[in-house]
Amino acid sequence: MRCALDSMSGHRALQCTEGCMKRFSHGYVGAHSSRLNGSTRREIARAGWLTAARRISFRKRLEELRRSLDELRPTDADVRPSRRRSNRMIQRRAFVAGMAAMMAAGSSRDAQSLSATYRLGILAEGSAVADITGPSPRASTIRELLGRLRELGYRYGDNLWTEVRSAEGRIDRFQQIAMDLVQAKPSAVVVTSNRAAMAMKEATNSIPIVMAGISDPIGFNLVPMLSKPGGNLTGITLDTGPEFAAKRLELLKELSPSVRRVAYFIPTLVWLERPGGKAIQEAASALGMTLLPIVVTTREELDAAAAAIRSPRADALLVEAYVFSWVERRRFSEFALSNRIPAMFGNREIVEAGGLLSYTTDFNTVYRRAAEYVDTIFKGAKPGDLPIEQPSRFQFAVNLKTAKSLGIAIPQSLLVRADEVIQ
Fold it and tell me: What's the pTM?
C-alpha cells in the first residue's frame, strides 16, 4: 500500500502526518513495520500511546489504518515531487510508531490466544459417561472440578477440553478404557476411584494423574508416601485418621444409645486390613460396639444381606463409602428402610435418595482442590513433588422424612450440628 504522504506538499504532509500520528496513538498500524527502531519505541512509551493501543485488535487496527490512509489520498494539486523524500521520512516515522504500538499492545493478548490448549482426562468407575461429560455435567463433583478450573482461567471449548471415560460399574473394562484414554494423550488425568487410579498407573508412567478422593494410596501401592509421592501420581486421599471413623459410630450411638451390634457393609474383607477398616474396628471397640462385616458389591449380595443382619440381629447399619454403594444409592436407602434399621452412610447422595444419616468428606471441596492440583501441573509442576493431601472439611446430613418413616426422633443435639437437614 502506497502512503498518500508520498505526494503531498510539505505543509500538507506535516498536517497529515500529525493526523496520522493521532490515529496511531489509538492503535492503528501501517505497512512499514520492519523499520522500527529503539528510539521510536522510547518515544512511543513516553507519549503514552501503548495504553490506548491495547483497546483495539490487530485486525481492526489494520483495516482502520487502510481506510484512514485512503481518505487522506491527495489531489494532483497537492503533489510536489521535490518534497517527496522529506515527506517519506515523516510518513515512515508515523508508520513505525503505529507498528510499535501494535506490537506492544498485542503481545500480552497474543500470548493468551496462542497459549497451550489442555486436554484433561477424567476416568470414573461408576458414573455414566453422559453424567460427567460437557462443560456443566450432571455429576456435581465433576461440575465443581470444571467450575474451579473456570475460575482459574480455563475456558471449556477454548483452552480446555475433556476426555471422559467410565467403566460404568463394569470393572473388567478398566484396563481397556485406561489404555484408550492414554491414546488420547491428555495433559493430565483425574481419577475418581482406587480402581481407576490403579488402571491409569498401569497404563502410563508419564501422564500426570490427580487422585480425587482415593482411599489408602499407600496400602494400594499407588505411592510410597503421602509427603512426596514420586512418580506421576498426586491428589487428595479420603483417609482422615481414626477420629473420622469414630465420629460416624459416635453419631449412631447418640441417635440410639442402645446400639451394640452394627452391620458394616464393605467392598471387600481386605478393607478391614486397610487404615480405614482398622480405624473403624478400633472405634467400635472403644464404644462397646461389635461390627458385623458384610461384603456387598452386587445387587444379589445386597438382597442376601437382609438375612445376614437378622441373625444375629443388628441394631444399626454402617455403609462404607465405595463405588457400588454410590451407584446403587437408592437401593441401599430402600434396604435400610424396608429392614427398619437406622443407617449411617458414607455418601451424602444416599441420604438425598432416602437414607437416614451420612457423615462424609465434602466431596465437592475435594474435587475443587483436585482442580487446583491440575492447574499447578499445567503450569509445570511435577505431580511426584506435590504432597498428597487429606480432607479437612466434612458434612453431616440428616433426612427427617426417613426418620419419621422409621419412627425415630432425631435428638436436637444432632439437628443443631447437621450441615444439611432434608425435610
Answer: 0.68
